[in-house]
Specification:
Length: 244
């Protein structure tokens, strides 16, 4: 029996959803796939140490280049699966005339109504690094705003609870993401351009694993594309199936 393909992904459900799509291609070519989720930095460490064969995926150039750049001599960029980008968002019931930009968080009515805690995910994520920098850059800390890292549930559950109660809240988020499949979330203008650029979510493979994967499977992987809207829906379905 052939050796399993070790497919790494960052341990968030939308990365898992894209990995499932990659695995379907590999399995259609007779491979057994072993999934290896890990936090952001750890996932790239596993790739660099040869403990996974592929990684789905590296967000380039803004979010994950700092993790992938030291490994460029060891890996091949296979395909762009979707085009992610980071936002600070608010529920659509927060009037755009009142809060259209991050700068508007410093003014009324946001000062009276917006919750001061901006709850994020783990500290290794690009959105977490960007958001932490924004608090000081915009002077938000001076009026009591705080960015806090945490797990997926801390971020997503808090947003859904706020929406259920009609509270004004800022969520540090990205496209694609399952919450966009459930809610209309308006991105705030961010004039200092601290949230990075639109990235390319790039499937990467270790060069020493290409032969193991095989010519036919690699050819199909190089054509694989998911897209933001489809991946948001796929993640939503995955979370519902897992009862998350």
């Amino acid at each position: 029996m052939s050796e399993p393909i070790r497919l790494g992904h960052i341990g968030l459900t939308f990365h898992e959803a894209s990995a499932v799509k990659v695995a379907q291609v590999l399995e259609s070519h007779g491979h057994t796939v072993r999934f290896t989720p890990a936090p952001h930095e750890k996932a790239f460490d596993l790739l660099g140490r040869g403990e996974v064969d592929l990684l789905a995926s590296a967000w380039l150039p803004s979010s994950h280049d700092t993790y992938l750049n030291p490994l460029l001599d060891q890996v091949e960029k296979v395909t762009v699966l979707y085009e992610p980008y980071c936002i600070w968002g608010v529920p659509d019931y927060v009037p755009q005339s009142d809060v259209a930009s991050v700068s508007d968080l410093l003014r009324e009515p946001a000062l009276s109504r917006m919750e001061r805690l901006i709850q994020g995910i783990n500290p290794g994520a690009g959105i977490s690094r960007f958001s932490a920098a924004m608090i000081g850059a915009y002077g938000l800390d001076a009026v009591g705003y705080e960015f806090r890292t945490g797990d997926e549930a801390a971020c997503f559950d808090r947003f859904e609870a706020a929406v259920a109660e009609g509270r004004w809240v800022v969520v540090p988020l990205w496209h694609p993401q399952f919450l966009h499949n459930r809610y209309t979330i308006r991105a705030l203008a961010e004039p200092k351009d601290l949230l990075g650029t639109k990235d390319e979510a790039t499937l990467v493979v270790r060069k020493d694993a290409v032969d193991k994967i095989g010519t036919a499977a690699m050819a199909e992987l190089r054509k694989l594309y998911i897209g933001n809207t489809s991946l948001s829906a796929m993640e939503d379905d995955l979370r519902k199936a897992q009862d998350i």
